[in-house]
Fold these 2 entries.
Entry 1:
Amino acid sequence: MRSVVRVSERVEETPSTVTLRFPYGPPAEPGQFVMLWIPGDDELPMSLSFTDGASKGVTVKSMGDTSRRIQAIRPGDAVAIRGPYGRPFPTSPGRTLVVAGGSGSAVLAPAVERVRARGGSVVVALGATQRPELLFRERFERCGATVRVATDDGSEGFHGYVTEVAATILEEGSIDAVWTCGPERMMDKVVRSAAARRVPCFGSVERHMKCALGMCDACAFGPFHVCTDGPVFDGGRLASVPEFGRFHRDPSGRRASF
Amino acid sequence: MASVDVRCAGLELRNPFLLASGIWGETGASLVGAWRAGAGGVITKSIGEGPRAGYPNPTVETYGTWGMLNAMGLPNPGIDEYLAEMAAARDAGAVIVGSVFAGDEAGFARLARRMSSAGVRAIELNLSCPHAEGFGTEVGSEPGQVERIVRAVTAETKLPVIAKITPNAADPAALAAAAERGGAAAVSAINTVRGLAIDVRLKRPVLSHGLGGLSGPAIKPVGLACVWQIYERVRIPIVGVGGIARAEDALEYVMAGARAVEVGTQVAFEGIDVFGRLARELGTLLDELGFARLEDAVGAAHGAPSGPGARAAG
């Protein structure tokens, strides 16, 4: 069932990302998503960037028309929410490497806060196109995670791919788990390097979604469905899905390359 | 244990529970998944001649576990790309029924010919989607048109043709009789029942398309009534559809006259393992009721004494 709520807060996190906060009571785990409906417009799956308590939130990157219309929502506007749905990150304490690319930090931030609150240590490899686009850097640092930055243009930190920063951290050893979210080709590399070192890995996958109930097949992902088997999958499953890092499907079910 | 395998429209099914069209079935891997979960057969998403994105979200509304309203809008990749998807499922040995939709008999005939080349064991005609302009119920509500479409398709394929009948018509049994005249090997009934949901806070319909189709346990009595009436009008086998969540629901359909059934919405409520569970539970139920074979129960409720004095006479 869905609830109609009014957006309580709108925060511009980076030049291209906006967080919307709204009151929504049902308990949620980091990694889960909600279906967010803009009345008169589309309904979309959105991973929660704030999961704790009654004030939930989503963080949206400006990618296409629909994400721009979500960003145009203002405090006081009504949206309808259903969920949360899907499988969360397993936030067991230990030493976790988090590899976040672009807006991937949105789903990883609450997971990092959760594992920090449980006494785990976290190092975040945070990648972005350029310095101002580093999403939730302060949020990661505030909860006690170590942040290592990579930017495509070299405006801060390592000049290059965040996957290279992640590989270096993995080589240093003593990592118990890897979590990742970001562009799928990036995640594919992360999953491979974690597997090479036999470190358990979990990644959050995005697909076009309709019912979110495991029925309509819109989010089919190999033998799985992102809505009910994911969006967080373990590395073994990700590596077993032929389309991971290669193609997704448009709303008609046709294959489209990344 | 009583045997639950059944012959229906030339298909030899290991159990009567078919994956209903529209559920999973958009990719080859999903067809395989439903087959491996124990479905007696798998029906593809309804496939058209070209790709179709379907309606924007929201496309579903749920009512606890008793019902679901949807208007997906016949999303599908089109027959060309879909044939490649089906190869994987065929290689896995799945019993596949290809569902097709078109706006006229020529389109149905072209699609049936293409589907027949893809290794499917039967063709199901979507004459009953309640919410797609120009398709489904709009071409399947008039007996003459149903007969023409089925005749055009049976001329193009040697495979059994199953006509899926709408409940959103004055006389669904007349539509089934028309399909039989056209040469259908079986009819399936019912598709979803036209419905609407409104969000009073937003003061607008929930589904982007407005009207949708109701499925789930709420429509079981509607489906049973249609199957009952169809059984009394036609000789061809009937596939019962609508609200099957338990083995007992399936047996109701069988006693009303169905030889097989389709399961859809329960997949959303329970997951794909519903197929294994239903097949096991049906065997147990048949044992309990003294049936050696599922086929012995087909139509068993027809002709039973009813009305005042029936108990004494019975």
Entry 2:
Amino acid sequence: MKESHNPKARKKRTEYIWLNVLPDDLWLNVRRGDTLFDVLQEAGIELDADCGGLGKCGKCKVRILTSIKPPSSDEEGFLNQEEIDQGVRLACRTQINSDMVVQVGETEIGTEYVQILKSGHRPLFQLDPLVKKQFITLATHHKDEGLSDFDRIKLAMGPDYLDMTASLSCLRTLPQSMKETEAHGAAVLHEKHLLDWQGWGKLAYGYGLVFDLGTTTLVGKLIDLSDGTEVAVISRLNGQIRYGSDIISRLQYVKDNPNGLARLHNLLIGNLNRITRRLVEVGGLVTNDIFIAVAAGNTIMLHLLLGLPPDGIAEAPFAPVLSDGMTIKASDIDLQLHPEALLYTMPMKSGYIGGDLISVILASGATEQEDKIILGLDLGTNGEIFLGNRKRLMTCSAAAGPALEGARISSGMIAKDGAIEAVGFEKGNLQYRDIANIKPKGLCGSGLVDLIAVLLQLGIIDEEGLITTPRMSIAQGLAPKVINKNGVNNFLVAPAEESYDDKPIFLTQQDVRELQLAKAAVAAGIATLMDEMGIGVEDIDQVYMAGALGNYVNPHSAIRIGLIPRIDTDKITSLGNAASTGASMALLSKFYWQMANELIDFIEHIELSSRLDFNEYYVEHMDFTREEPLDVHHEEVENVMKTIAVGSVMTRDFPAMSSTMLAREIANMSRDTGHHGFPVVDEEGHLVGVVTLADLASCLRAGNADLPVGDIVTKFPLVAFPDQSLYEVLTATDEDYGRIPVVSREDEGHLLGVLRRQDIIRAYRNKLAKFVQAEA
Amino acid sequence: MSEFQALSEAVLKGDIKTAVAETQAAMDAGANIQDILDTGLIATMDEVGDRFSKGIIFVPQMLRSAKTMQECMKLITPLFQKGGVTSKGKVLIGTVKGDLHDIGKNLVLMMMEGAGFTITDLGVDVTPEKFAQKTQEIEPDIVAMSALLSTTMPSMPLTIEALQNAGVRDKVKIMIGGAPVTDKYAQEIKADAYASDAGSAVTKAKSLMGIS
């Protein structure tokens, strides 16, 4: 989209010079001698400036990357030597006297995470990609008959292709490429349209791209169209984040700024082009090798991608410009792929049920499921929910607010380095794991959910959500962490000396309230859909979780805080980056692309804000549920526990770690599996000990990430035998274990399984239910 | 205060049964109706609002207390009809155009009712014209607007403009609230007050009316 200036059409008159603004890569043609502050202000680039550009507040700092004079006397008081050396200046005190490159805001946005997948996930369905390569041998005699080059290709492809069309650019290069390929060539086809004529060379079947346009993160995948494998994945922060971290504030930006849509569109395209260049580089390709891309994203992101005004989505009735899946030429929006390449954008249901949720539904397989009832949750800023199967499928969008992504939480942050992402209670104290194993900076969504679940369990948060001093003896060690301030309790997660920024990390009472609002919105959305479907929790066969929070949240914690209904955790599966998985399915199979488009009409969307019962459910779900701890010394509990054998309820396929694995590898396993501890075995498979979150945390913080786990395990742990009763195991120790290895009586090194806390609770409940049934 | 201690505690807890019984008992014992209302109920609701503002109680608890208060009011209002109850003021409330959120607005409504204001609720997605027309019709003391989306906030100045055009802007006080709304925004659009939550909405409304 045209924004205002074209860098290539540089004017010769010298009073105008160029200013390049990073990280947006914006080119501005400015008058020599203008102040940087005024120019940026005019271009709609917001700088902090309490004084309005008078050189008094020192907040409009920018970094000048081209050569620059020493700072003026006005500036000196606001800049330290390091900043001066780095080219940091105050925008309001800087005149532009020659072409200049300036960096505005955080540079962090440029960080890319590249993952090269050695054994990418292979899809199990029949491949029928949107763009195909067909290998053809041309009949040589046609050449002598004076047939057109294009007709020769049509004839060779058979009677079905007599009405084939061709792109002009393909025809222009056809004589040259046919000379190179001679009789053996490959037709790159989109339906019956010839995009290119190539040799049989190295690219057997070609590659395609998939983009997941998240509000926070952009993900690009390079997919091998011959077998559907993912070759490489790149993710980076969405550069639009400078114009608002949540999607509504970006919408607001577009409404407020005449150039806003063009700016956000161009920024996105620039980001995607960068991702593309890196992806093809990793795959040993060039951008010209890519003929097809599929993009998924929420409705607003897809509008920004296509350059469509999203304003209608801002207000009730939240109407988008477009809901259909689109097929356009990638070059129409300046995506730098092959000039004839096509871009498919996933269809959307409504302003708030976007192409991302449609992709998640595809990935979940719900539409291919006849009998089972599937509940799907895409948890980010909005909680998007679907329920049902191919007979009936309903969706709703619950305004969970950004709390689940760490926003509006006093020490909240998005899931990046230093974010506490998991919390457990071990050995009388809180243990946490943070991303990148550095000192913690704050809490991200999954850490927040874990922390509140743990505090609920310990009675430090009561069922109304109030932070209180602990009464349970087991939690007494945490009493000093409950700190009263102005009559309200806050919970100290990490003191200043333990944190990255030397600032204490608190969970405040208000944070708990924010989480209550968020979880109540999601829970009430689920309850409303279940009502509408006429089913109960017991009727749900499978739960799929996706989205920034959905992928990493511990299912037990999610259940404990009431975010999702009380469902057997074995039925809960994380779908990973499901939006891109669904988009890959569409890329690789016309069947799924078709299905996505049909879904739009099939889905029943429930608008929660227009329903009276939603408000009731919403308020009803704000409280937490009380959960009495099982007291094994209570007679009733004792009687039940005595009848249950360890072997009948333990988890048999729990992953055991090899003692040679490194501490950081185990930390990653913990992250991927959501388990807070593992049994560790030696090369012969004999039990060496157990390793827990606490062991890992102290090891990683001491900088020993590369220590083999065999060196840090707790040796001679408490073990159980399969023929023991739960009562025997539970009374053998006063300590509260999350998991106990179960070994054979004959050979105590032989690991049979693991007895988890939840195994015990589930077994107890099931048994109790049977007792009640038998009595009735 | 102490003579309605039990009633006050029941309202704080949201214990409807006890609160209603306590109200009845106080009436039977011949307590002054105005005292039951002022010290037993309204003062307690002030306390509820204060606790809510601090985060000590949350939405379900506040709603329960407000509901309890309403049930007690049912007992005493018939008696007031004869003697004439004085309203603290008339409030017109609604969620602005384009916005369908109503929980926050309803909380404000209930708390204000609890504090002795008379409320007219226009519901959600209320157009500026509707606000203006109703203001002309019922002549409220306060017009209260709520917006939960930053994208619907601009409906607030539009509503103020509509009141201006209808010639009633200066006859009312305007207060605004909602998650994205700030005190600064209230000043920008020349509203008379901003309230950060339902508890402080009552405090702000009272000070707008010149009562403590």
